[in-house]
Amino acid sequence: MRLTDRKITIIGAGIGGLAAALAFSRQGAKVTVLEQAEAITEVGAGLQISPNGVAVLRALGLADDLAWSAPRARAVVLRSHRRGGEVLRLDLDQYAPGQNFYFAHRADLINLLADAARQAGVKVRLLQKVDRITSGARPVVHLANGAQCSGDLVIGADGLHSKARAALNGVATPRFTGQVAWRATVANLHNHPAEAQVFMGPGRHLVTYPLRDSSLMNIVAVQERKTWAEEGWHHRDDPEALRSAFTGFGGAAADLLAQVDQVALWGLFRHPVAEVWHQGSLAIMGDAAHPTLPFMAQGANLALEDAWVLVDALRTASSDEEGLAAYQQRRRSRAAKVVDAATGNAWKYHLRQPLAWPAHQILRLGGRLAPQRMVQQFDWIYGHDVTGGTPAPTGNDPGAGGPITTLA
Asked: What is the pTM of this model?
């Protein structure tokens, strides 16, 4: 089914929405993206783009631009919290050759995708807050200002509190995981290398890695906590509260925490993977379909995978219904498996004594005896390539029926 001149409306100008917009436009579709913000700006700070996400950016012709704007990860290093002593080094250069992991600033990746989408003819409409969506053969998007819009296809890439998901599945009730996270960036004053450093402590852990030209350091700090009232990215907190929560963390972690002067705090909630991903000509993707905790660094990567598979499934199908059904069939089980892996990963870094010491010894032993196995244990995530290694065909291509780290 050719997508040329199909009218596609995408809700949300995040990573997944913009990647889908670009892929649809490359197929000749007329794409409009609705974004509620007044500008496409940074949300959050750093993120990790693993090889499965890089594969999609490569197929979209953007991998070289990513490489120019983001450091390539050389290793993941697990450390004890008190002095920052090394417990385990996962050498990506040696044991994951050919698999590129990048530390990207979210704003840089968003700008990269937005520029490419606009150049491909995508229209991005700002200040378009969606109130609700009526599903059906031709879905209707009702905006908060009273206006309405539609399209041959409407794609909900509108995140955790998706109106599109609610139209398909009803309003979900998330479950608080008993964890909160702080996020901040500081200057890289001590030339920290292109490595993800994970400082493991009792009931909490801290992750750091460099961004951009390595002049910035990204900090994500997770703490177990009994209660939390809200979720989201935009809760400003006092840096002293962060430092107090991570008292006792030494070495490089202490130095970086001392630099923090602005920090965001949010609660981590477990959302169920949506049961229904499409109905009529309405579909969902990314966090709208499968919100994930940050403990496998896969939120952005899964959204990129969704974008590619969604367009591929539609253009190789004989109808929208067939294409959207194939999209859900190809994506739901994988997304659910990755989400479950992320949910079960955090406790490994939060062990208390007397369990922490023997667990760290086991990690050290594994690093000495089977380093390659330690690195490759999640190849089922990182080595997955939804593009089949092929570049994106264009709408004018006569063969256009062909296939199109461990922490936050």
From this structure: 0.92
